[in-house]
Predict the 3D structure of the following.
Amino acid sequence: MKMTISELQESALSTAISTGRFDAFEQFESHLAHLHCEVAEVGQAYRARRLDGWKAQDGKPEGVAVELADVVILAASIAGFYGLDLSAAISEKMEYNKGRICEEMRG
């Protein structure tokens, strides 16, 4: 299923609320800590099986792509929770990055 970033944001937040992952009492710092954990799981998946995906014994999809998806889904949920326009922010940042040379990545 393909969707726009705005649709992703709306769907991810709706799922997060309906499944109890988000509630009105959580703080921004808690959401960021959760996002940090999801990013760490990308590294764990890479170390476990490299880039290949696999299914756990319970049928849960695992792997780098799935963990990256968790990062995107959670980021979209957080943006939706706080009323941030993630689509506009991504467009703005991508346009800015076109003219930016990232010196810290050049060693």
Q: What stands out?
A: The helical segments are 5-18, 28-49, 64-81, 86-98.
